[in-house]
Amino acid sequence: MTFNMIIYSAAICATWSLCMSPVTAVRRLDTSVTTNQHHHQHLATLSELNTNATFRAPRRTVIGTNVDVPTANTPDDHLVTNLPLLDNDDFPTKHWAGLLPASDDGDKYLFYWLFAPDQEQIKKQKVAEKDIPLLIWLNGGPACSSMDGLWLENGPFRLTKDPKDPNKPWHIDIDPYSWHMAPAYVVYIDQPVGTGISFTTSGKYPTNDREVNVDFYYFLKKFLQLHKDKFLTQSDNSDNTKFTLSRPLYFSGESHAGHYIPSMMNYIQQQNKNSDITIQLAGAAIGNGWVDPIYQYSAQDAAYGYGMIGKAQQRALDVLEEKCREKLRNGIYRSETCFGLLDAVLDNSQGKSSPYIVSQYDQRKWEIKNKPRDFPPGHREVESYLGGHGPTIPGDFDFRNVLEAVHSLPSLKAGQVYYECTDPPYNALKHNDGLGVVPDVVDLLNSDIRLLFFNGIHDLICNHAGNENAVENFPWKFRDAFQKATRYGWKAPSKQQLGGYMKEHKNLQFLKVLDSGHMVPMDVPDISLDMIRMFMYHQSFQSYKQEIGTLSADESNPSCPICPTCENDGEKEAESPIASPVSCPKCDDCNKVCKDMKPNQESSSSSAGTSQLSGMVLGAVTFLTMAASWMICCLFLRRRRRSIDGHIPLSPRSGYDMELPKTNGFRDDVDESDGGGYADGENGHARAID
């Protein structure tokens, strides 16, 4: 059987290579049409990308020149006093918004929106002024706006319209679970430049982590200096140029912000050595974060737990995951092998022939294949409010009045039109898709910075199983102790019911949040407010202890990196590599099964030679037959391609063409040397991480 499989594989590989080498690969598609695909790690099938390209042109910013951004000298210069659709009586809390430079040449500006803490909560929680933290919120993408967080997740504002009467005026409701109610100062920042309302006049978008960090750090110092009455204190009475933070500083964000935040925090720590502002870091709360792709491209463990795939399918994807890891170890950070791990689960979630597909952001929800996504709900309304496109807002509403109210009209003059996610900064950073930030995380942990990783348990794209594997394997000084730490059920105070499961040791915490998917604050706003309040104010999550023994990964399986199989009885490595030592079955159990089966194997050995000979003959005949069939198929496909002027078939079995030039490239820098992660070679997805 093994010989036959080798013959079959050789036939397929040889003939397929001959067919495809002279022509452009079927699964190539210009990433310029991924307009709606890089929100929260959007993965879009080729047909979906083609559909979206029909509906909307790529979201690109137009580079402007000679843009005058008024200098803000005091916080009042950025005070928001008259926001369209908001009744000021409904929201007495002070808030500030505007543009601040991210470079000293006047080329780059980042947009921020800052909210003061709720005064009633300060009294209720009995918090001293100096203990009220500053919390920085970032969405991911890369290049997705933090206005998602403000308007859809944990900010105070919600755009509301009458679903029955589209002509009825919209208004802004106040979310009672906004994180400024913790209490905290909360600032939402659009970064990197080119994201949301932030802009560059030269088109010099960051291309790596350091460039992102340099821009952000420059902006952060300008922000703290402008609002120094709230955030800074003079660190040396004899030197009025040296300042330090006057309150705790936390970061929070989700998805690709799990990449941004550790890198930024580590950069800030390095800059503190020679800066006129010392920025002490208290910690970070990262939701469904994209931190370590070595463990997080995998979706099969979560999918198996949800019942979406079977055990045999899980094992098949385990083999594919090991191939993905090998590519990542070799510095190939955009590989279809890795993308294929999630793609396989999504595309087969209801069967290949079904018109429905499970949502990658919440496995409880379903979407229609080949239709533009509308996730997260409400983001198109925010695009109307801040960018002037999308659903029409009734009355004499003009989005330019909103930009004026938040002191950001220069952004529009620079050619930056607000979209939830924008292409240019995404395209500049997408090559780092598979590059993790574990060294930054380890540096922070070993510096005793508090880190909370929380995960909605119904997410697939940044799923709880992959994230837990990543967190468990951070190579920090207390790794083994964290692996063995006791888990607790956490009772959320707002509901007096179980909100999730917490595991913690020292300054590292991992929380699985119930009833939520990729965007935890959107799904469970009350519980997420409990979580961030308890984290920032050092309150215990240990409500109900789980009385189950624990072992570290090394203790559970110290000598079994690759288990023996019944075929080789442990004399050589198994043919199917195990994803990691943590997931490897115990060797004792494996050996026991092999021992029980050994008599049957011995009794059948007498017929092995005859079977092998007949298998070789059958394999040779099969090779010749398959080779001839594939050659005929390839000649037909090549002739058909030549007859189609400028079109590429969606797949070898599709009945229609994609209206794209043959020269277009799908993920120009994606490695496809392995043929991708699909047995049928049909589906490809454009990935980005929010």
From TrEMBL:
InterPro entries assigned to the protein according to its UniProt record, in alphabetical order: Peptidase_S10, Ser_caboxypep_his_AS
Taxonomic superkingdom: Eukaryota
Region entry Disordered, spans: 647-690
TM region positions: 613-637
Annotated keywords: Carboxypeptidase, Glycoprotein, Hydrolase, Membrane, Protease, Signal, Transmembrane, Transmembrane helix
GO biological process, alphabetically ordered: proteolysis
Signal sequence, start to end: 1-25
A GO molecular-function descriptor: serine-type carboxypeptidase activity
Pfam families: Peptidase_S10 (PF00450)
Record-given protein name: Serine carboxypeptidase
Organism: Nitzschia inconspicua
